[in-house]
User: Fold this.
Amino acid sequence: MIIKPRGTSDILPKDSPVWQKIEETARDTARIYGYGEIRFPTFESTELFARGVGDTTDVVQKEMYTFSDKDGRSMTLRPEGTACVVRSVIENGLAGEAMPLKLYYFTSCFRYEKPAAGRYREFYQFGTELFGAETPASDAQVISLADTLLNRLGIRSDLKINSIGCKACRPKYREALISYFKQYEDRLCDTCKGRLQTNPMRILDCKSPICKEIAANAPKVTDYLCPDCASHLEATKALLDGMGIKYEVDPGIVRGLDYYTKTVFEFIAPIDRDSKTDEIKRLTICAGGRYDGLVEEIGGPRLPGIGFAAGMDRLVAAMKFSGREVPASEAPAVYIAPLGQRASAAAQKLIYDLRQKGVYAECDIVGRSLKSQMKYADKTGAEYTVIIGDNEIDTGSAILKNMKTSEQCEIKLDNLYEVITKR
Ligand code: HAM
Assistant:
């Protein structure tokens, strides 16, 4: 048997309604915030992510699916969407349009991570990016978009925010980190030993347990913010307070991608309960932040940006875990059970006409006996059934049965649409 690659998922019809509900709600939330949809390629040149996401990040150093195409160019399956959106904004001249520019996307992402509950090698994101506004108001709006989406999905989560500073305050913080981590250089993992000089902030989100333990007491970025970044954070907090959005400032939120500046945030929610320990597993379901230097880094004009991405797989898990009723597959409005060949053709025509009008209707195409047709109709959850044979075709009338109440009534087949949609 050929099986799917590790860390990938099949989303089956029984689970699709939850995905569709999340997609519909996300699309509608993007609509009410004035975002337009953008779609971009599944693979991009590797350089885009090396420059955009940062070549000292775990994502670029360890997790990318990179390959040479037949012309020897280095390509990478997108590990995230922001760099792709920025590339597209520059390439398509959107940076010259009226600002703010607000874009959303659904995308699959590929990261070679160790698979676990809620962590996959192919996963899905709903993402939003806002360009051309540098104000705390834009931060508050983006955070409120994520908050609105989660509320509309009935997912309870905790919001953590932080500021990771800007070009002006980073150098001092960098020095403080280097002198702190230097004391523990021997114990750091090999990747972090290298990061000590190239990008010490990345040590803060290293997944190695020893690096994590050392990083726990590292200097906090919030103690090194310049006056501009500090007041930006305060103003953003005040706007969130004004909207009644609860949050906690957590200096430990540094994010794993290099492009962030100033505000960063994560929404964390319970997604699962460990069957052995009964412990509740909590994961970041939605995360993002400001990236004021990224457009320039990728070769565009100076254009500030801020956005987030919600992990769809994790939203599905969080929605199921929340206990809120998740939508089920749709049941047919009517199941038509034909008896004999002539009736079978008539049933096809009846459901064809209903489907033209947007009604979900079914009839037998397997060749079942009447008894097993009725059993099957019941299994599908069909609201009504109609049995038709030669007599029904000749008279143009049949018995319509309500499968829930078992009530029966005679109807004209020509009126089937009106009868089943009127009730
Ligand atoms: P990220 O934190 O790497 O940020 O991913 C965003 C979300 O994608 C995570 O919070 C999580 O819900 C989901 N996610 C990440 N990795 C996995 C995985 N291996 N399996 C399942 N779900 C996962 C970004 O990707 C940024 N581009 C977000 C952003 C947009 N920042 C600004 N704009």
